[in-house]
């Protein structure tokens, strides 16, 4: 897997956009705080559109995302080290209400800045999974 730092402040192109936001194609990953676990996926076409994201492996070391041949070809992935996976985060009033979408990760090829959001067919993962346990 790629290091998230390798793609900061670089345009990432999602040919199909994100789920529900297909018209917005270009984003950049920005640091929210030094050495923090949260990052900002900022849309370049509309500066008011941004998502908090997280490296899902900081929450679940056993998180599994299988990349099918079609996706590997579409993103032109040559080796595993080019792949970065992040999940969107929904913030709540209290940190105990923060959730992450483990069902629809964002797959980014850091070698060519192509990305795609996919939907996993795996009942172990939820759309809203608590980040901080109460």
TrEMBL record:
Keyword ATP-binding included in the entry's annotation: no
Entry's localization field: Cytoplasm
InterPro entries: Flagellar_assembly_factor_FliW (IPR003775), Flagellar_assmbl_FliW_dom_sf (IPR024046)
Cellular component terms per the entry's GO annotation: cytoplasm
UniProt entry keywords in alphabetical sequence: Bacterial flagellum biogenesis, Cell projection, Chaperone, Cilium, Cytoplasm, Flagellum, Translation regulation
GO process annotations (BP): bacterial-type flagellum assembly; regulation of translation
Keyword Cytoplasm tagged: yes
Gene3D superfamilies: BH3618-like (2.30.290.10)
Family membership: Belongs to the FliW family.
Function in brief: Acts as an anti-CsrA protein, binds CsrA and prevents it from repressing translation of its target genes, one of which is flagellin. Binds to flagellin and participates in the assembly of the flagellum.
Subunit structure: Interacts with translational regulator CsrA and flagellin(s).
Name this protein carries in UniProt: Flagellar assembly factor FliW
Organism of origin: Clostridium bornimense
Lineage of origin: Bacteria, Bacillati, Bacillota, Clostridia, Eubacteriales
């Amino acid at each position: 897997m790629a290091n998230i730092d390798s793609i900061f402040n670089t345009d990432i192109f999602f040919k199909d956009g994100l789920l529900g936001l297909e018209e917005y194609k270009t984003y950049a990953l920005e640091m929210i705080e030094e050495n923090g676990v949260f990052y900002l996926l900022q849309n370049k076409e509309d500066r008011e559109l941004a998502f908090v994201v997280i490296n899902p492996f900081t929450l679940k070391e056993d998180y599994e995302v299988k990349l099918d041949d079609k996706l590997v070809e579409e993103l032109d992935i040559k080796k595993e080290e080019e792949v970065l996976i992040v999940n969107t985060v929904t913030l709540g009033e209290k940190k105990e209400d923060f959730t992450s979408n483990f069902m629809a990760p964002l797959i980014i090829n850091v070698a060519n800045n192509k990305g795609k959001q996919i939907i996993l067919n795996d009942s172990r993962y939820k759309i809203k999974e608590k980040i901080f346990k109460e």
